[in-house]
Amino acid sequence: MRKHNLAFIDIETTGLSVIKHEIIEVGCVLTTPRLKVIEEFELKIKPENIENANKASLKITRYNDEDWKDAFGLEEAMKILLEKTKDCIMVGQNVAFDVSFLEYNFAKLGLNSMMHYHKLDTISIAWAKLNKEKDFEHFSLREMCKRFKIKNENPHSALSDARATFKLYKKLMTL
User: Fold this and answer.
1) Cβ(89)–Cβ(4) under 8 Å?
2) Does the pTM of the predicted model rise above 0.70?
3) Residue 48 — φ and ψ, nearest 5°?
4) Strands (E), 23-93
């Protein structure tokens, strides 16, 4: 039996460049190996170099100074994330994107990830299970939610996307 909890993680950033842009939000749904929810949490992170942000990214994530006025600093948020996800297997939609930002920032802060080294990607799982279906070509979270009738309450909000990814994973596991 699997013994590692799962951490369904989504991040929002100020752009697509790991080096130039910043994480501004982390959402996480922690579950048991049998997919029973243990905890959900969201960490808003105050950007240090908002002037480097991609304007389109800020619009997509609905970033505004008011909603982030009480946000965590990056180091504090990353330490909270590491503590809560210790020994968990990370699951994400396009997990490589989220992992690249997380690992870069852990290294920048001199922190060691305590998550399990295995990562699961819902896009890869969906592709493996659905690639022969001619009417299914797009694997974005939005398209997958549409296909599986999953309601994503607040797209491009980290916790809402993490919840949608969790629901998608459960659906994919039934195929």
Assistant:
1) yes
2) yes
3) -95, -20
4) 23-31, 37-44, 89-92
What pLDDT does 2 receive?
Answer: 66
Q: Which two tokens mark 41? A: 């949490």
Task: Say how far apart CA 129 and CA 86 lie, in whole Å.
Answer: 29
Question: Over the stretch 61-105, which tens digit does the pLDDT of each residue have?
Answer: 999 999 999 999 999 999 999 999 999 999 999 999 999 999 999
Helix (H) or strand (E) holding 10, with range, is strand 6-13
Give phi and psi for 125, each to the nearest 5: -65, -45
Structural domains in the chain? 6-173 (3.30.420.10)
Can you name the residues that pair with 26 across neighbouring β-strands? 11, 43
pLDDT band at 16 (very low <50, low <70, confident <90, very high): very high
pLDDT at 8: 98
- Residue 79, φ and ψ in degrees, nearest 5: -65, -40
Element (H, E) at 168: helix 158-173
Q: Token pair for residue 115?
A: 């998550």
Query: CA 6, CA 90: separation in Å to the nearest integer?
Result: 6
Amino acid letter, 109: L
Q: Three-state SS string across 91-109, please? A: EECCHHHHHHHHHHHHHHH
Greatest alpha-carbon pair distance for the chain in Å reads: 48
Facing residues of 113 across strands? Answer: none
